[in-house]
Design a protein that fits this description.
about 250 residues; 10 strands; globular; alpha/beta; about 20% strand
């Protein structure tokens, strides 16, 4: 069973008899709040959405049963797929047993690097890149789908101490392809608000850490997404109450 199918299969039992309470598809992120559960995010990949067909008017997400929304993650329609992934993330964020071993704070307080190490970054995390520059030997950055398809990970795999992968690879479903080339890398991190907080899904993959986020202020998150804002607004340091809080989960092998 692949990662995408397993996400659906693991989320479905916890979605029974639950409905989407509210949702919004924003410029940068899609948010789904599930009643009696949690709130989840998925990155909104606009180029793909612009190229796909508009959803039939018979498909309505508001008050949709959560299990139906989750199955939509495997749909060829990009909008259904994004809403499905956000719903999956809402379900997992509502499972407290998944979060009890979570470590709050910065990734690099957990994973130690030195100037001899090389790091692979799939997706560009500008704040993380700034932290790494000058502290490690080299950071390899793959930003576009074309880079992922054409770059030979086998040529650099033995040099890499840490691989950081954007969880938006779950949206365009390129994650499995990326992970195929990363077996043997000491630390592989899936990072970003789209990260599903369910370590069991990744147990038999190279992923060693899930670095995601918990929604602390769903009302403000809804407003920010409606306003077209993204992660900078979600993690704003000087806010009186954080909208999102970072959490790191170890994937036990």
């Amino acid at each position: 069973m692949g990662i995408y199918t397993e996400l659906v299969e693991r989320a479905l039992p916890y979605a029974r008899a639950k409905k989407i309470k509210r949702m919004v598809i924003g410029l940068h992120y899609t948010m789904v709040e599930v009643e009696r559960c949690g709130t989840g995010l998925a990155y909104t990949l606009l180029p793909e959405i612009k190229n796909c067909c508009e959803l039939n008017d018979s498909i309505n997400f508001w008050k949709l049963p959560a299990d139906i929304a989750i199955k939509g993650y495997l749909s060829p329609n990009q909008i259904e797929s994004i809403v499905g992934l956000a719903t999956i993330n809402a379900i997992f964020s509502g499972k407290k047993e998944n979060l009890k071993d979570g470590v709050e704070g910065d990734l690099f307080s957990i994973i130690k690097l030195d100037y001899k190490d090389e790091v692979l970054m799939v997706g560009r995390f500008e704040p993380v890149l700034r932290k790494l520059q000058g502290k490690v030997k080299r950071v390899w950055v793959l930003e576009k789908e074309e880079d992922i398809r054409t770059f030979s990970l086998a040529e650099i795999k033995d040099k890499i101490k840490l691989a950081i992968i954007t969880s938006s690879t779950l949206v365009n479903k390129t994650l499995e392809q990326v992970l195929e080339g990363l077996y043997g890398v000491p630390e592989v991190v899936l990072m970003g608000p789209t990260t599903p907080l369910c370590p069991e899904v990744f147990r038999f993959t190279p992923v060693t850490w899930l670095c995601g986020a918990i929604v602390r202020d769903v009302d403000q998150l809804f407003i920010k997404i409606c306003e077209g804002k993204g992660t900078q607004a979600f993690f704003k340091a000087n806010a009186s109450k954080p909208i999102l809080e970072k959490i790191n989960l170890r994937v036990k092998k």
